[in-house]
From TrEMBL:
The lineage of its organism: Bacteria, Bacillati, Cyanobacteriota, Cyanophyceae, Nostocales. This is FidE3. The keyword Acetylation does not apply. The keyword Ligase does not apply. The chain crosses the membrane at residues 21-45, 57-76, 83-100, 106-129. Keywords: Membrane, Transmembrane, Transmembrane helix. Pfam families: DUF6220.
Amino acid sequence: MAITSSSDSVRTSTYWIQIGFFSIVVLFNVCLNLQVLTVGLAYFYDPEWWKVHVWLVRGYSGLTLLLLGLVFLSPFPKRVRGLTVSMPILLALQFITIHLNPPLPLSLPLGVLHPLIGFTLFSASTTLVHRTQRFIFPKLDDESDVNLTKQ
């Protein structure tokens, strides 16, 4: 009869939380890529794509709150946690810059910042995918690139 310790059970549940977190991060990144694609389609091809652009952000924005909860349920590096915390903040700034246009001293609408914040969100999301992947699936020394001198 095999007896498993509670530490093995905790380790297993931590691993699955991390795998779930990584899966959601990848899904968020794919949705963000699709959103960038649809804004390009709306601007350069057919304005009807704008509806898909808006629908996408309304559909996947809740994933940032789910990620925010998961990142504190399992041990993750500070960099992964920081990037995760930044994503709902950047998404909120995206909503603010597109929906609020208070008068500024230079008569510059806040919407001008929308693409810049979007680029920052895209960069943070992509970096989070890579950082999380390296943390969960570390490359072992013996799995490094093939040494071409040995044949």
